[in-house]
Amino acid sequence: MQQVLDFINKVTQVQFVDIIFAIGIAIIFKMLSSSVSYYIVKLFKLKAKSKKEITTSAFYNPLKVFISLLGMYLGIYFLKEPLNLSVKFMGIVYNIFTIISIITFARGLAQSFVPGSIITKKMLRKMEKTQLDSSTNFILKAIRVTIYIIATFLVITRLGINLNGLIAGFGVTGVIVTLAAQDTAKNLFGGLVIFLDKPFIVGDWIAFSKFEGTVEDITFRSTRLRTFENSLVNVPNSIIANESIINWSKMEKRRYKFNLCIELDTPLEKIEKFQKRVYEMLQQKEAIHDDSIIVKFDTIVDNGLNILICSYTDSIDYPSYLQERENINYKIMKILREEGIELAYDTKTVVMKK
């Protein structure tokens, strides 16, 4: 309490004009922060054409904060002699100013490596990519994490914490942390495997043992899937890295195949004519690959004759594939009726002995 009273006594002894001048410094820096930040960013962005492009820059807001903080620090520094502020107090003020500046600029630098930023667009152009994929997104996240880690160590150093002692402490607790973070380490390694192997990217339709859906995001820990029931599933990367993944989005063509069983007593002439008509029908369809068409008398089974019909279609996505398959099925049924061919049923003959 005595220290507070002594401080107030010192303040009352200071000329009023000194306090007004110090406050004026802080206010002027605050008022000029927007304009100064604007021209500094514009200086480095010579190609910027609009004001919005400059004000939305990652460093515009951090610069405004820094200039405002600088005004407050200079105002306090100006009052150092009039208020007879101690070296310890000024050291605390300087440390606060430095720490906030580090955090502010670290955030601005990290925001420069987000999707849609100018730096990201330049990276994509140099990598000859038109859009952000999972590998590039992984790199951006790694850069942002690295920036924040460096900023954290700078703040710790500024606070006067001995990093050697901190590292030694990590060595003592390292075993405990390792045991507790085994799953996290597996997920991080799994994310690295996904990044290097690139079995899928954001937007791909994938399927594995438990889940199937569209990839919405890939993080260090997990992969987010949007299922066909429109639910959202976060799958740990360690699970995906150990699974056999089907990437349906990488299909170049899709197979249409089924066996058609017709009655045993169907004349061979009708079978040959039916095969010819189905083959010609498939050839006429633009989405069907002609060299992949197979219409063959496959096998003879207990209750009928199996005709194998197989081809590949360009209709890759599931809705269009179902539509194409339905059209082919309708045409095959029409040919069956026109040729008077009946489908075989699963029948059994029972012989009764007297």
Describe the structure.
With 354 residues, the protein is an alpha+beta fold. The chain contains 13 helices and eight strands. Strand 1 (205-207) and strand 2 form a beta hairpin. Helix 2 runs antiparallel to helix 4 (60-78), helix 4 (60-78) runs antiparallel to helix 6 and helix 12 packs antiparallel against helix 13 (318-339).
SSE sequence, one letter per element: HHHHHHHHHHEEEEHEEHEEH
Quaternary structure = single chain
The low-confidence runs, each spanning 5 or more residues with pLDDT under 50, are none
Distance between the termini: 120 Å
- Strand runs, count: 8
Strand pairing plus helix content: what structural class? alpha+beta
- Give the helix level as a range of percent: 55-70%
Q: Give the CA-based shape.
A: elongated
**Alpha plus pi helix count:** 13
Strand content: 5-15%
Read across the widest sheet, the strand sequence of neighbours is 4-3-2-1-5
Q: What keywords describe this structure?
A:
8 strands, three-stranded antiparallel β-sheet, 354 residues, 14% strand, five-stranded antiparallel β-sheet, single chain, alpha+beta
Summarize the structure.
With 354 residues, the protein is α+β, with helices and mostly antiparallel strands. It has helices at residues 2-13, 16-44, 51-55, 60-78, 80-83, 87-111, 118-126, 134-158, 163-180, 182-197, 237-241, 268-284, 318-339; strands at 205-207, 212-218, 222-227, 232-236, 246-247, 254-262, 294-301, 304-313.
